[in-house]
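Hey, resending since the last one bounced:
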Amino acid sequence: MHQKIRLYITKDTYVLEPESGASLIVRRKSGTVELGADNAVPPVTEQETAMSISGIMGFIQLQAYLGYYMIVITNSETIGSIRGHDIHRVGSFQILPLARNLAGLTEIQKQDEHTYVRLLENHLKSGGFYFSYTYDLTQSLQRQGEFNNDSLTEPLWKRVDDRFFWNRYISSKLIDAILTKDASQNFTDYILPVMQGFVNIENVHVNDKKFVLGLITRRSRFRPGTRFFSRGIDSDGHVSNFVETEQLVLYDGPDAPSPIVGKKQLSYVQTRGSIPVYWSQIINLKYTPRLWVGESRKSLAAARSHFDEQIRTYGPQILVNLINKKGYELPMGQAYARTVEQLNDPRLYYTHFDFHSECKKMRWDRIQLLVDQLQEQLVKQGYFYYDASDKNAPVIRKSQESVIRSNCMDCLDRTNVVQSTFARWVLTQQLRQIEILGPNESIEKHADFMFVYRNVWADNADAVSTTYSGTGALKTDFTRTGQRTKQGALQDLSNSLTRYVKNNFLDGKRQDGFDLILGNYEVQPASTAGTVAISSEKQQYISPFASNRPLRVRVVPSILVFGLFMLLLNLLRPGYSGVQSWLSYLMLLAFWLSVVVSGVRFAIRHGNQFVEWPHLVHQPDYDQFEAMGGVMEKGSNLPPESGLAPQRLE
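The structure tokens again:
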């Protein structure tokens, strides 16, 4: 795969020249791609500009007819290496238009074109993109160890895990060209799989023995999105916010020099994902949105698809449900337990640990109760251990036989705390096996290492949370320090309020960015985009971003802001209004207060009309959810016959 590429931009072409091998030529007028000669650099007189890039993210077509945009990685940094392979984090992108202009588009279409580009830019700027030219970041060590020799000779883009190939859709222009053209037009060396998630690689030491601690989190590109616009499961068995996290240990022995290659390689994999039933929370400006739980028979079929795939990939599932056993979250616990019972699959082991109840009053040490409860399962589960001490006869000494699948409501805060606790328990067993720790020694006793370990997992929590909820994770003070603090609780309050604002008023655009770059919404060229026949001779373009909010909804925010401003102004400067008597002054305050109260009451009553909804992929509204069956409740009053008391199922 080409690692150092020089990009030359001319009026008619983009020419990508690697250090060796055929150049890639992109024709700007036609949008076609082809391989050129080994030295296809355009003459200096034709060059508009030139730059060095790390690779091509992909191509995407928007409205301009034949007007693809090429997305390139303009900057990246090496964050470490795994088994001698460098891992890179993307620093910056550039979106380059193939078309020279937007001729043929109406003014509204041009505005929409710019909106599409901004959505792409904002999504790419959100960060969390990683790649390697020579290492498959999308596959765990255990799955790579199971590849046969034929698989290892395939190009990287063919053998990656499709779930975590984030730029698969925008790479399709090159992939499709490979599948349809002759062998001379093989663009394999230009297809760079990019993963969205988190990677951290730390050189650490315990008992004067150096090793590498790595953490790789892989976000699935199926059913992606933001917190309240992507919940539950779909008919294909994909769940929202599905994430695979792999903890790595690479060790070369007590006297090995740096850098560490990994003669002994150990890994431990966990997953998280939304509760695998049909459910949603319909945002309506209230801090706790209305909860909708779908009809159980449809959920059962989708859940069966989900767990069939999970078992094929990971083996038996240890399901750890961390939501509350009462109040608002109770219906979700009932629905999940009922689904698992109806599946009646011995490969599913379900336990419900009410995190908030067990750990209330900052008794976070009680998480150990869950580890103790599942210790038998953890021992049976094991971990992956590949021993290449003898390079001529490497051997897999141990395999991970199952996986823990954790969840809370968002699969962010509680989930990350519990996952880090399971991973720490397993890490102790791994370090004992490779004799970094003594037989009865615990990793928690090594303060310097634990400082690094806790911060790696806290950074992971923030990375996963920022993409889904818009802020860093909650409860990271415990993850970082091992203690729950009042300062951490105040930071959680700040993050919670920020989430409220973003989830209600900003996430619609963020969801559009997901749907656009992952291909859930495909923009049609201008010749066919968004047109509706209104006569046999005339067509009218309809913008997907057009607002259909009633006038009263559009003006209420302005009235509310103005009323609040005038109320505060008159409170802080009583003489500003010029009234002469206290009675008149109080009546004036009462008037502006009534304006504010009326505006707030109207907004709450029509909350869903004030929310910033996605424009590209339609989201169901209240009436549609109710028409789909299931239960729409704020509380915990599912029908008695619909579920089980949340409990552990043996």
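The chain has 19 helices and 23 strands.

Sorry for the duplicate.
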